[in-house]
Amino acid sequence: MKKRQVHASVKDEKLIEKRRDQMIKGAVSLFKEKGFHRTTTRELAKEAGFSIGTLYEYIRTKEDVLYLVCDRIYDQVGERLQQELDMNRGCLKSLKSAIYYYFHVMDEMQDEVLVMYQEAKSLSKDALPYVLNKELQMVGMFERVIRNCVEYENLPVSEKEISLLAHNLFVQGQMWGFRRWALQKQFNLNEYIELQLEILLHGLLKGEKK
Length: 210
Prior knowledge:
Layout: H1 13-34, H2 41-48, H3 52-55, H4 62-84, H5 92-108, H6 110-119, H7 128-153, H8 159-178, H9 180-183, H10 189-204
């Protein structure tokens, strides 16, 4: 799916990236505190550290900023997962390692995940499918890791179960951020990961002894 273009009147690509980085950082903070709809473009400019006139040199609408936030979050998570996940190895140990890594990334990006989870629905009709497709690509990474594990360990798990396990795993990582108000009163991060692993492996092994 083609990337949505956010138009800028400035031609310097490095400056565009720098200014948009500032916008994204400021937007995450404001969207977390006030929500997308109650945040004004003037507040976004102030939080980013420049004037509203400067803001409009790099975006056209407030919706552009939300799109840049969601796009950047998925890019960062996807790139880090791609670097870490070993798509070829298939043992349970490598699957556990991948899950640990993903959950720790989600822990580091709690604020970003919370904003994305709450505000992605406000994306425009042309931007939302692109962003959601990026999420499906990351779910697909986990599907491949789980499938390799199933084949390597010769486990009785169907393709539908692999798909559902991958979606569950993806959401469980995000849940550490958007349900933190409840979860972090009961678990630290490693306790949360261990329990989720136990549930996941029980499903993979069909209740057999691990």
